[in-house]
Amino acid sequence: MPVLETHDLTVRFGGHVAVDGVTASFEAGTLTAIVGPNGAGKTTYFNLISGQIRASAGRVVLNGRDLSGAGTAARARAGLGRAFQLTNLFPNLSVRENVRLAVQAHAGGGGSMLSLASGHRDWIAKADRILAEVHLEAAAGQPAAALSHGDKRKLEVAIMMALEPMVYMFDEPTAGMSVDEVPVVLDLIRRLKERRDKTILLVEHKMDVVRSLADRIVVLHQGRLVADGEPGAVIASPIVQEAYLGVAAPAAAATPAAPAGREGAR
Ligand SMILES: Nc1ncnc2c1ncn2[C@@H]1O[C@H](COP(=O)(O)OP(=O)(O)OP(=O)(O)O)[C@@H](O)[C@H]1O
Does 40 contact ligand 1 (Cβ within 6 A)? Predict the structure, then answer.
């Protein structure tokens, strides 16, 4: 059974259909890259899945459960994890405390004083394990606000890992990062993928990143799903060739809205 499904997912902004009847399903242990020209509807599709915006029509189903009427918090509790919202961080708390709070929230941290005390040790131990995984252990005692942009992103991934979602959604994970920070974040995503039990969705403009990480590519164009499949076949398809590589598509194919090679500007 797929972990996540969208059925005919659609949103209209005034007369503009930003996401138009997108039906797709995503299995555990797979990383799907969602690509398309600027304005194709990729971020809006993410917003519809995570509940940031309400669909005009269609459904979002997680593990067989229809979440279409649920808000963002309920969707997060149900197992949808979205990275890089930046609102997740407590800037004045330490890096470790930020992760510990997420571990505790996931554990449902209540109970007696005794269980709270032992729970607290376990939560910190788990927070430290996660910080080691994302290579932030050396910064554990620093306030979150003191971190570099790249390290903040790692901390956000750590917080998301602490919440143990079923689905990880990354919207341009390397945007705004320095050259030396990029491989660290990509390595994090690669290691999440290697666990084989998570469903990962990645919006990404850089085709080299997509090629190196994706098991599958979904192409959106003017809000519609226009290609979906194994990376080699999708990258070779006329619509992707034209949108990303500047090769003219046959007359029958739709014309992408963005100039060729636009992703290279990111
Ligand atoms: N809240 C909104 N109100 C009105 N129009 C919107 C809103 N959000 C997105 N849009 C429009 O919907 C379309 C899809 O936008 P979206 O940001 O999802 O595209 P994208 O594929 O993520 O683009 P990019 O690659 O540039 O980030 C665009 O035309 C955008 O202007």
Answer: yes
